[in-house]
Amino acid sequence: MLLFLLAYLGGILTILSPCILPVLPFVFARADRPFLRNGLPLLAGMALTFAGVATLAAVGGELAITANNVGRWIALVLLAAFALLLVFPALADRAMRPLVGLGERLSSKGSEDRIGGSLLLGVATGLLWAPCAGPILGIILTGAALSGTSSTTTGLLLAYSLGAATSLALALLVGGKVFAAMKRSIGAGEGVRRLLGVLILIGVGTIALGLDTRVLARLSTAQTFAFEHRLARALGMEGEELTTRTGGTLPVEGVLPPLDGAITWLNSPPLTREQLKGKVVLIDFWTYSCINCIRSVPYVRAWAEQYRKDGLVVIGVHSPEFAFEKDPANVRKAIADFGIRYPVAVDSNLAIWRAFDNRYWPAHYLADAQGRIRYHHFGEGSTDQTEAAIRSLLAENGAMRLAAKAKVDLKGASAAADFASIRSRETWLGTRRARNFASPEGLRDGEHRYRLPDFYQLNFWGFEGRWNVEEERSVLLQPGGKIAYEFRARDLHLVLGSASGRPIRFQVLIDGKAPGNDRGMDIDAAGNGQITGQRLYQLVRQQDPSRERLFTITFLDPGAEAYAFTFG
Hints:
Layout: H1 2-12, H2 24-28, H3 35-60, H4 62-87, H5 92-100, H6 116-129, H7 135-147, H8 151-186, H9 189-208, H10 211-216, H11 222-234, E1 254-255, E2 264-266, E3 280-286, H12 291-307, E4 312-318, H13 328-338, E5 344-346, H14 351-355, E6 363-367, E7 372-378, H15 383-396, E8 427-428, E9 446-450, E10 461-469, E11 474-476, E12 482-487, E13 491-498, E14 504-510, E15 528-531, E16 535-541, E17 549-555, E18 560-567
Parallel strand pairs: 3-4, 4-5
Antiparallel strand pairs: 1-7, 2-5, 3-6, 6-7, 8-18, 9-10, 10-11, 10-12, 11-18, 12-17, 13-16, 13-18, 14-15, 14-17
Helix pairs in contact: 1-7, 1-8, 3-4, 3-6, 3-7, 3-8, 4-6, 4-9, 7-8
Transmembrane segments: 6-28, 40-61, 73-92, 119-146, 158-180, 192-211
Keywords: Membrane, Transmembrane, Transmembrane helix
Pfam families: Redoxin (PF08534), Thioredoxin_10 (PF17991)
């Protein structure tokens, strides 16, 4: 009963996820009609369709993906047709008669009490909504993969979809009141109907061209996921230890989840867990601007090369933290820069992340030749322990003469952190997770002009110039803008990008002077550098990290995107 309640509550939280935004215009398209005969059938069609598609996902992996893509295009055609009927009500009777058999006139007054049209619209909308799922649904699907599909699995999926329908029903009822008020005040019922049809056509075109993914990529889903995880813990789901306890035979921690849902694979065709049976498999969750991942990649790369002939398969799962990391072109460039040759699943929709119920960058999972997870480690470090676990499972699988331990080449940003000197921690430069902002204006959403503070404390920072501050980034609107940060660490990194895609020049000062020998790998001794892509930039590597320093970066061109400071 607890699992059904968890699934239902997880579905309710779907309304908080950015991926639900393209669905809402289609729901509100019937918000001005009686709820029981229009809104309720629409929501029922959505819920049943989602449960069916999600059940296919639990049953059949690749088949489900194919079915869902076909269903998505069918949905777009149906929704475009409904939109045209809203724009041109006179066509409704003639156009809809072959489709629904009874010839409901969906956009005329006579269609307000017909259920079939709303149900069909709900089915079409449900096919678009089906990919929208949070970690709780991922847990349900993983459980289905472990125990096999059953009526219980379908019931859990239906509970999830009913929860989402409940939250959408509330939105629909509120929307109905808004539309009714509009009709009473300006008598523009037909105008509103036509406007909704135009908006739906715009939405269909946006989704068909893939532009919705780019827009939604600007909206971070991390906050929603964190809320769902807190709910899961409140309902009795405990967290895991950061590292498997070793010292004997490695324990069995579960079954390797499916690797379905990546938007593409790099360095390899798509791999399935069935293909991997008989191999020891290392799954590495990473993202390319994460400094902890950058420092872990050389070890993973060395293990892949050293133990490949002994039967080890390494798979990188690139699960993004920031919106720009969802772009496959950026990921492709990053793996070339890092010299990664092993397969990488581009998990931009976090489908594999959810299947593993993962919450860490980096995270390593080791599976034995029977497809059972035997070891995990979350976060940076414990490389000797992880390599020992790799060697143990390879020996268990019959490797007679293992290769010598891997030699790892560490340089630049991938060099091990100087943890003894670090007194500064990761700091985000958007409103969602920002802290210790010292500019007198205070950090605010939207476009504002800021001044640097008159004095600093350790780990406090500020802006100068005109910035547009968003949830996960801040964008400089005029040249000459600055960021200053009082830090203590050997290395200072800053995740930067260019809003225009053009190179952006900048200059770094430490305590008001050129960095000289304290420069990072991405600037020269005078502090000059250039933003050439969306990634992590190493700007400071000090010779003496024992004291606090004031870091200042001045951007000579507008359009700089600033995401987060990290230290090493």
